[in-house]
Amino acid sequence: MTVTTPSAPHAPQPALKIALLGAGTVGSQVARILTEDAEMLAARVGARLELAGVFVRNPDGRRDYQLPRELYTTDAEALVDSADIVLELMGGIEPAKSLIERAIGNGSAVVTGNKALLAQSGSELFAAAAEAGTQLSFEASVAGAIPILRPLRDSLAGDTITRVMGIANGTTNYILDQMDTTGAAFDDALADAQELGYAEADPTADIEGHDAAAKAAILANLAFHAPFRIDEVYCEGITRITAADNEAASEAGYVIKLLAIAERITAGDGTAGAVLRVHPTLLPREHPLAAVRGAFNAVFVEAQNAGELMFYGPGAGGAPTASAVMGDTVSIARRLVRGGAGRTHTPRSVVPALPVGEARTSYMVVIRVADRPGVLAAIASAVAEHGVSIVSMRQVPLAEDDLVVEESDEAYTDEAPESLLRIITHEAKEQNLAATVATIKELDVVTEVVSVLRVEGN
Ligand SMILES: NC(=O)C1=CN([C@@H]2O[C@H](COP(=O)(O)OP(=O)(O)OC[C@H]3O[C@@H](n4cnc5c(N)ncnc54)[C@H](O)[C@@H]3O)[C@@H](O)[C@H]2O)C=CC1
Ligand SMILES: N[C@@H](CC=O)C(=O)O
Ligand code: NA
């Protein structure tokens, strides 16, 4: 629809009807901004943004920001049908998807923060919006308040982005940061992140890396102008990270971060494509991403002409995410008032997703080995066998706790002294590194491979 500004000096200001679907952490903050900043928004848009209603499960429930009772409804379809702009902030696949399709079918514009849905069905929804000549905007879906999608889509549209590497999940960054700096237990740090409104309704999506994987797919979509999906992202979460991993990382001068990485590479057979991966990663303490604390996010972009750029800010939480939702809403509303074609993201190129084995990384491997002559040589030769080279190999004494032995545990007696060996490799093909670790595990001088972590930014 197009709203025209009235010519008479005292004519009432035109209004655009906004439907809000969901009034949780983010939806409540959007409701607050629409209410408390109504005048400022009207001045910027040239029309009032009128909240037509809020779709909720229970209209009588208490919310972070309480609106008059009559604004809450359980009739989502009727609300969607009445709106010029639909803000979907429920999360999940259904009914979010059907309601967005309904809005697009009506020719209404849609704003969403739903990365899970976009990383699964984005192509379909973008195509539907383009066909209907309407807009589907989603800046809130990646890195909360940080303007990252618009810069990738517009500001860098004349450049070739080669790599995007980001801390894109606030919950896991908060947990890892707490574990690293305060020694907090995993479960306590997760409970805090939930309390602070960073975590998804089911925090499994955060800690298993699925949320970051959805964001990796969306980032790659915009950076490489091609339709990637979440099932093309290799994904490992942070649930297996231990205090011992943190100690080993710290001792070696690294910090552990859950990174979402999308990079253009050429595979061994010459195919040009991209690898998308999410996993806990060691970063040197002096790397710009290592300084990203708490629930903050940052996205590090490498482009052929621009060079290195970093986007940093609050990546989760009600008000910061609502800021991104409102940015999209104001931009759409201005277009509806002033006229002009809506632009919806339409991936045009084909960049195949390549298997993670084609990526190049370094590893830090910590192994428990027998303390006897020839061990280092045996390990070095196992590594060399797979064409991998070693940056450093350091023998670390076992902590006193590790020396406490069960009576039945023969491996830990005085006759078989052991130590920890920490190896850092040069960058090599991921598949060769994985084969190296498999060979190391089989060596009889090796009691246990304690941890294997990828290293970036060396
Ligand atoms: N919380 C955050 O920091 C961020 C959240 N997002 C995304 O924004 C969206 C909303 O997130 P939150 O506000 O944190 O979630 P939330 O769980 O706090 O709120 C969702 C609201 O939608 C309602 N809802 C869900 N399904 C419904 C249904 N079938 N019928 C009626 N109501 C339903 C829930 O009752 C709840 O009030 C999600 O897609 C999330 O991934 C994006 C960036 C940051
Ligand atoms: N659960 C997400 C919320 C923002 O996308 C996170 O922790 O980053
Ligand atoms: Na954003």
UniProtKB/TrEMBL annotation:
UniProt GO MF annotations: homoserine dehydrogenase activity; NADP binding
Binding site for NADPH: 115
SUPFAM superfamilies: ACT-like, Glyceraldehyde-3-phosphate dehydrogenase-like, C-terminal domain, NAD(P)-binding Rossmann-fold domains
Gene Ontology process terms (BP): methionine biosynthetic process; threonine biosynthetic process
Record-linked CDD domains: ACT_HSDH-Hom
Binding-site list for L-homoserine: 200
Cofactor: a metal cation
Domain of life assignment: Bacteria
Protein's UniProt keywords contain Oxidoreductase: yes
InterPro entries: ACT-like_dom_sf, ACT_dom, Asp/hSer_DH_NAD-bd, HDH, HDH_cat, HDH_CS, NAD(P)-bd_dom_sf
Pathway in which the depicted protein is active: Amino-acid biosynthesis; L-methionine biosynthesis via de novo pathway; L-homoserine from L-aspartate: step 3/3; Amino-acid biosynthesis; L-threonine biosynthesis; L-threonine from L-aspartate: step 3/5
Keywords tagged on the record: Amino-acid biosynthesis, Methionine biosynthesis, NADP, Oxidoreductase, Sodium, Threonine biosynthesis
Residues involved in NADP(+) binding: 21-28
Segments forming domain ACT: 364-442
General function of this protein: Catalyzes the conversion of L-aspartate-beta-semialdehyde (L-Asa) to L-homoserine (L-Hse), the third step in the biosynthesis of threonine and methionine from aspartate.
Homology family: Belongs to the homoserine dehydrogenase family.
Protein name: Homoserine dehydrogenase
Native organism: Citricoccus muralis
Lineage, top ranks: Bacteria, Bacillati, Actinomycetota, Actinomycetes, Micrococcales
